[in-house]
Fold:
Amino acid sequence: MAPLLHLRDVALTFGGQPLLEAAEIAVSAGERVCLVGRNGSGKSTLLKIVAGLVDADSAERFVQPGCTVRYLPQEPDFTGYKTSLAYVEAGLGPGDDAYRAQYLIDELGLTGQEDPATMSGGESRRAALARVLAPEPDILLLDEPTNHLDLPVIEWLEQELKSLRSAMVLISHDRRFLTNLSRATIWLDRGLTRRMDRGFGEFEAWRDEVLAQEELDRHKLDRKIAREEDWLRYGVSARRTRNQRRLGELHGLREQRRTARFAVGNVKLEASEAQTSGKLVIEAVNVAKAYGSNVVIKDLSLRVARGDRIGIVGPNGAGKTTLINLLTGQLAPDSGKVKLGVSLNMVTLDQRRESLDPATPLGDVLTGGGSDQVMVGDTPRHVIAYMKDFLFQPIQRRTPVGALSGGERGRLMLARALAKPSNLLVLDEPTNDLDLETLDLLQELLADYKGTVLLVSHDRDFIDRVVSATLISDGDGVWTEFAGGYTDMVAQRGRGVGAKARIVAGKSPAGVVAPVAAAPAPVNRRKLSFNEKHALETLPKRIEVLQAEAAKLNVALAGDLYTRDPKLFAKATARLEEVTREIGQAEERWLALEMLQEEIGA
Structure:
């Protein structure tokens, strides 16, 4: 099938550094493509080139005659529009259904009379979505469509996009969103694009294979250079005849090695842990909070123990931030009581970045100013070394915070928060603007974190991978706790956040009566968490090591150790008991995970 749009040999250079080199992207009718890559790799720039909003240094661009393209920017421009409806209607073309604009405005929870100058980030994003969706174009280019949206709108948007015949190119950090919608994947990495004709669900395994092969090729190149340099220094023919051809090949290999753009390193995340907190971290008994007639929390009782990971979900305005402030003692309840455990060291990750002064240099945010050292826990580290752990370049030390991208500000907030000793992490939308690799590492960090985590997020996949229990708003101040992540909650509750929230909001298309109960969202099967997969892979080796140690101890105890050294005999006996107990626990854990994996597979 001939593509509706085809760009190839796209090249663009910023500040002397190539951003895009021979990049290519093709979109056919009805195709759903996700465009993935690290923060700063040029995804948004490439999408703007596809939309015709940015000129590349060089490119071949083909668009089928009559093909309509609509682009959703991360920061829409509302200049000149008096209302949100006027902005949406301006995106309609000749022959487009004008009623669809009002339908989408209603579905997205707007009135159409909002003043663009005073709209919140979420309202601006909803209006921008309505504008690009209303014409039902041949190609939709969506740059982070889920930013600033809550779960009800994200789930509605998924269903709406699935119902469209438009081809789509999606950029998003929301794994579940990409997995549910994409059918092909384009990976933008070091200026080049690679395409896989499968959805995002299979991307990460494919990416790891590509990077592993690159590492092998790099190793082979280094070995070849070493052999040629050895010949140059010690080869008899090199000294006698000075083989110019072979010498030229060596220079060529060195140049190839020098100019090769190998994969950028990963962020190094490690939380500074404080002393262990008490077993009981938070206890709330019959807590209530209201603002006038708006009841935010009603008769909530909750116990949070050391090591718990609680996910808090609900639509915007449900009171998630108020609930966090109540549970952490920053806000007093109207009734009931909240008891905090002993020895708590709380660190809050403010993902709204309100605590960052745009004029403060990046290095001063980490050091507090006037020093070259960052205190990571109780250990001083040079600020440049710590910056590199989070993929910042030394030259960025004096860069004002206001000049950083959204992803860079997200990494900076992580760097500052994780340097502080803690045993209670409060994370408010930590996934905003983070690339997929950084999200992976943040999940691994939380899996290994020995303290307690309170997490507010609209990222369903992140919640599934991190939390042990989910606290959801059921409306009217009622909060209900479910074991497991978001998918587990949907399975137990029978619906996601969106179903209940849309009835509460009272929004429905013009002329349509809202149903008593919305259809449940498609339920994704439970997946093994990172911790569970890691345990399943490593436990057999652990059991083998323990069994070998037990065998050695049995041999030692069978001899005359008791007569030679009674103290050592007693020590060995105690260790054998401990090892035997650990083997039993490891075998039980491994067997349980094996059964769980079989159940998921079935």
Q: What stands out?
A: The chain has a mean pLDDT of 81. The two ends are 37 Å apart (CA to CA).
